[in-house]
Write a structure and sequence with these properties.
CATH architecture of the largest domain: 3-Layer(aba) Sandwich
Structural class: alpha/beta
Helix content: 25-40%
Bound molecules: ligand KE4
Number of domains: 2
Largest sheet: 7 strands, mixed
Length: 411
């Protein structure tokens, strides 16, 4: 397998050393094939928000298995999960399930172009919307991690319609609209960035984009593949009170199985085949096994106190890491929102990808390796976010902060 992995960020290229091969996960923990246990802050990049291998999710999957894994035809469960997503996410009146966040973002891009009849889109530097060609322009996540100039194999003609602006920069967006009148189908963004490290929106940024898109006849798309059901049960759009026209989702709504989704205003979603002419399809879309994992996961997240607990435990972690950095003389900044956090080895503040690139990635690599040796598994890249779960305990957080203190003293 190229690089020994099936997704580049796992290869430890930017933190050094060999990727670790794992054997099993449970709750807040992950074990490698040699039996070493780690406190896991990757959480399979978001889906494990209730804790890995949650007993109620596994029990539901065991029951579902006896009825088969994929029908390739309508099943009752996809209607159940669709209604849960519609009830939860403010912008979603109709939804279509696919099998990954990449697929969801590809489809939503085709949809906004079909609906507006316009070809250009705006994305932000450092944001990542999956690996489809038109998004591999100044992308975050693994592209940033590997310092790639984006990717060979992507025709210039494909990305010619992808305009970019710095995150949190409304003036730059206004300028793009002025330079491309009536040509921009929409803006797609991570409402809280997790793929350039953790970068929250500045006050007024999301609201400003909402106004600018309406003023210019363009659509606003929140890519909530990472933030959906993590920042709040209704996602970042609920947390910040800004409702986009369309939303992409993934990760959490699959509960650890492959699920992506896109949804939004009924008048737009009605364009999706077979209701309308915009084509998108998938063999395993809406399969009963993945729907089961998603339904049970959302049921668990709906229980009272979920997001207060995630916020409390993650704030304790984030504050603790920054406190330790200060005590040991390392410039660092960062923060958290609900169960998503991040920090940079730079004084900051970090408002965009350019700021993030000022951080000391070599130091981050040494820190990552040191934390591994203390049994803590952090995302193997400075340009990723960290994730907690309902299974992480105060003791886990205390152990993590103690480990960070020891590692940072010797960085
Ligand atoms: P997937 O195709 O990987 O399911 O989703 C793509 C995607 C789209 N939008 C956002 C905001 C995302 O964060 C992602 C995927 N996130 C990365 C983690 N940074 C997945 C991990 C990986 O690529 O291995």
């Amino acid at each position: 397998m190229p690089g020994g992995v099936n997704s580049p960020v796992r290869a430890f290229k930017s933190v050094g050393g060999q990727p670790i091969v794992f054997d099993r996960v449970k709750g807040a923990y992950i074990w490698d094939v040699d039996g070493n246990q780690y406190i896991d802050y990757v959480g399979t990049w978001g889906p494990a928000i209730c804790g890995h291998a949650h007993p109620e999710v596994l029990a539901a999957l065991h029951d579902a298995l006896d009825k088969g894994t994929s029908f390739g035809a309508p099943c009752y469960l996809e209607n159940v999960l669709a209604e849960m997503v519609i009830d939860a996410v403010p912008s979603v009146e109709m939804v279509r399930f696919v099998n990954s966040g990449t697929e969801a973002c590809m489809a939503v891009l085709r949809l906004i172009r079909a609906f507006t009849g316009r070809d250009k889109i705006i994305k932000f530097e450092g944001c990542y919307h999956g690996h489809a060609d038109m998004f591999l322009v100044k992308a975050g996540s693994g592209v940033a991690t590997l310092g790639l100039p984006d990717s060979p194999g992507v025709p210039k003609s494909t990305t010619a319609n992808t305009l970019t602006a710095p995150y949190n920069d409304l003036e730059a967006v206004k300028k793009l609209f002025a330079e491309n009148p009536d040509q921009i189908a929409g803006i797609i963004l991570e409402p809280v960035v997790g793929n350039a490290g953790f970068i929250p929106p500045d006050a007024g940024f999301l609201e400003g984009l909402r106004v600018l898109t309406q003023e210019n006849g363009a659509l606003l798309v929140f890519d909530e593949v990472m933030t959906g059901f993590r920042i709040a049960y209704g996602g970042a759009q609920e947390k910040f009170g800004v409702t986009p026209d369309l939303t992409t989702m993934g990760k959490v709504i699959g509960g650890g199985l492959p699920v992506g989704a896109y949804g939004g205003r009924r008048d737009i979603m009605q364009m999706v085949a077979p209701a309308g002419p915009m084509y998108q399809a998938g063999t395993l879309s809406g399969n009963p096994l993945a729907m089961t994992a998603g339904i049970k996961t959302l049921e668990l997240l709906k229980r009272p106190g979920t997001y207060e607990q995630l916020d409390r435990i993650t704030k304790k972690l984030s504050d603790g890491l920054l406190q330790v950095a200060q005590e040991t003389g390392h410039a660092a900044c960062g923060g958290q929102i609900s169960g998503m956090f991040g920090f940079f080895f730079t004084a900051g503040p970090v408002h965009n990808y350019e700021d993030a690139k000022l951080s000391d990635t070599a130091k981050f690599g040494r820190f990552h390796r040191g934390m591994l040796e203390h049994g803590v598994y952090l995302a193997p890249s400075q340009f990723e976010a960290g994730f907690t779960s309902l299974a992480h305990t105060d003791a886990d957080i205390d152990r993590t902060i103690a480990a960070a203190r020891q590692v940072m003293q010797n960085l």
